[in-house]
Specification:
Blueprint lengths: L2 H8 L23 E5 L2 E8 L5 E7 L4 E7 L3 E8 L2 H9 L2
Antiparallel strand pairs: 1-2, 2-3, 3-4, 4-5
Length: 95
């Protein structure tokens, strides 16, 4: 690794939430097909033939993760795989 890359990782030394909430599991055997930088995060393709239709995750800068499945005939379907850091902190404070 270059020192420039290590300096970039140093910015993320303190996680916004506990490590227990900073990890999101993915099914065993899931392959990473493409990573796309978005204005507000990243799109991670895990199942597609053409990068238009298929399954991908959107990792947002607020810590939330959305799971999308885009189908040609049925339309798009999505759900929140991980809420934002702020939502997690608020839920922990209400206990």
């Amino acid at each position: 690794m270059t020192s420039k890359m290590l300096a970039g990782f140093a910015l993320y030394a303190d996680p916004a939430t506990s490590i227990r909430h900073a990890i999101m599991g993915v099914p065993i055997g899931t392959r990473l097909m493409r990573v796309v930088r978005l204005p507000t995060g990243w799109r991670i393709w895990v199942a597609t033939a053409d990068f238009i239709y298929g399954t991908y995750y959107e990792l947002n800068e607020d810590g939330s993760v959305l799971h999308y499945t885009a189908r040609e005939d049925e339309g798009d379907e999505f759900f929140t795989a991980r809420p934002s850091d702020e939502d997690i902190r608020n839920a922990q404070g209400n206990r």
